[in-house]
Amino acid sequence: MYSKVLSGLVQGIDGTLISVETDIHDGLPVMNMVGYLSSCVKEAGERVRTALRNSGFNIPPKRITINLFPADIRKEGTAFDLPIAAGMLASMGVIPTDNIKNILILGELGLDGHVNTVSGVLSIVHSAYSEGVRSCIVPAGNSREAAIIRGMTVIPVTSIGELVDHLSGIQTIEPEYVDVEAMLDTSGDEAEVDFSEVMGHESLKRGVEIAAAGMHNILMTGPRRGRQIHDSQTYPNDTSETQP
Known about the structure:
By secondary structure, this protein is of the alpha/beta class. It contains eight helices and nine strands. Helices cover 27% and strands 20% of the residues.
């Protein structure tokens, strides 16, 4: 039986959508994975089979072929574990194939079926939204990151069992929600100190002011270890008044 799951990867800072095709048919009990795969993606086959078995799902002794396309893009990372598992379960008839259409799925699997966090979720989800995808299933640890994309329904999962129950309609998972406006609101932020409390160091303060005005990066370090700086200490370039 054939199934298709939507996933993705990061190229630089941009997300790229990848389709995961799975076909299970009669033949020698072997699992083949193709599609210009890195070594960590090839290892996903063993992780997925073990995770499914430890989650209570029996893989039939048939020939399993998994294709990740486009084939001209090198597939790297561990985010393909969960979509591969979802594709195999759909081809086995555990998950209805209609329930995985146009849904982005990302996640790394532990051998016990637990879903671990992955990197690059924000870029991939943003790319999927730009392509018209409006729902995604991601690790619970990445759900708030993905929910930043407005209009995207984000379903957090922690295990293969939760994924199956949700896609099968047994137990629906509530979507993650993030108040982006409240997250970005800085109206209540007030500086507690300013440069008026810093004695001397006129050139350093001037440099920080220029960097802040131009929104540039600046590297700041503390005093050397073991060196004590007291309020009564004066410096050659210090123009403040001192007691005689």
